[in-house]
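Researcher: Please predict.
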Amino acid sequence: MMFADSFRVFVSAILIIAAAWLSFPERNLYGSPTWEELSQECATPDGTIVRLYVGNAGATTSFWYSVTTEYGFWSLEKQVMYAYSGPKLTSIACGKDHVIISSPNYEFSFTEAELHSLREAPRAYSAGENNRTRSWSLSAFIKLAASLTIAAAGLHLIRPVYLRILKHRASDAV
């Protein structure tokens, strides 16, 4: 293989890895993990780690609160509850049969089975109102489009090398 082919394979691999990294899911469906700070965490008897984050993106937004769970070494941390501008989530407590998420005016209690189901569709509040709807955000769409474009560029870059190898193998077989 020539140097140019090796370089194309290397750049193509870098592009495909970058596309995979870009498309890797974040822990949150709501809110940005970049602006969140870990406030508290606890563990259930089965080893599930529950974390409470407080988010603050600056003076133009309200605080938000995010509760996530992680079920073990190979499990991804996923959001189970989100509150923007209220209710203010202040603490979490992991008990034998349930997890309690507290705020000054409310107390939410979830079993571990409920937490598992909330990983797919987190409970979401906005200014104290329960709001479970979520559609694709513009940033998620742009992230997916960029990921697919980068992966396609990587595959397009490696295509001539692949065709040259196939042609070489076909001529060796004759």
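Model: The chain has two domains: 3-23+140-173, 33-133.
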